[in-house]
Design brief:
Among the domains are: 34 residues, no CATH class; 73 residues, no CATH class. By secondary structure, the protein is an alpha+beta fold. The longest helix has 16 residues. Helices cover 18% and strands 13% of the residues. The protein is built from 3 helices and 6 strands.
Length: 209
């Protein structure tokens, strides 16, 4: 509560106009503070929480690298987290952001491409199975230098099941090779398989015509 000096004066005036004091009564007022409370502000606003001005700091991760995404930064160098495979981080607008992942594709269709964090490089493992032409009479391998599949000829004379099923497998392999624009040669077919190919009219498809 505020009590102004003017209010204090009124109180003093009223006191002097009261009943006459008896003999020996001390009518002196010691101090104004005997009548007036100290002026204080009781309606002061609550103290506002101070803003958090601390900058975001990098956080170590379980793999020993640093998680910098979202961290306050002034240049790209401050955003690098030590990882190779997740690419180069950037610092647009004062905060670290992730960059594009490392592209390990070597453009070869018969290799398996993977990023190696331990060596900071890309691995390209040859995958001969990608060259499988489904032909039981060829061995399939990948030629990385030319990005081609090699389907070496095997003597089919050892093929024991000379029936329509074996013929269907050969046709499937030949068809797969043609779709991949690869040539295929089939030799050593038993007379039984050649007869079946003639009966079904697939000699040309097998390269026998």
């Amino acid at each position: 509560m505020r009590i102004t000096a003017y209010a204090a004066f009124l109180v003093l005036l009223a006191s002097s106009c009261s009943d006459s004091p008896g003999p020996g009564t001390d009518t002196t007022v010691d101090t104004v503070t005997d009548l007036v409370e100290v002026d204080t502000l009781t309606d002061a606003p609550d103290t506002m929480d101070a803003p958090d001005t601390s900058e975001a700091t990098d956080t170590a991760t379980d793999d020993g690298f640093t998680d910098t995404i979202g961290m306050v930064c002034s240049n790209d160098e401050e955003c690098q987290n030590g990882r190779y495979c997740d690419g180069v981080e950037h610092c647009p607008f004062g905060f670290c952001q992730a960059g594009p992942l490392v592209d390990c594709s070597d453009g070869v269709n018969c290799t398996v491409d993977a990023c190696n964090e331990e060596t900071d490089s890309c691995d390209h493992e040859v995958d001969d199975s990608a060259c499988d032409d489904s032909n039981p009479c060829t061995t399939d391998s990948c030629e990385v230098s030319t990005d081609t599949c090699i389907n070496e000829q095997i003597d089919c004379s050892e093929l024991k099941h000379a029936d329509s099923t074996a013929l269907a497998l050969l046709l499937g392999g030949a068809g797969t090779a043609r779709e991949s624009k690869r040539s295929v040669q089939i030799t050593g077919l038993s007379s039984r398989l050649q007869s079946l190919a003639q009966v079904y009219g697939v000699e040309e498809l097998l390269g026998l015509a």
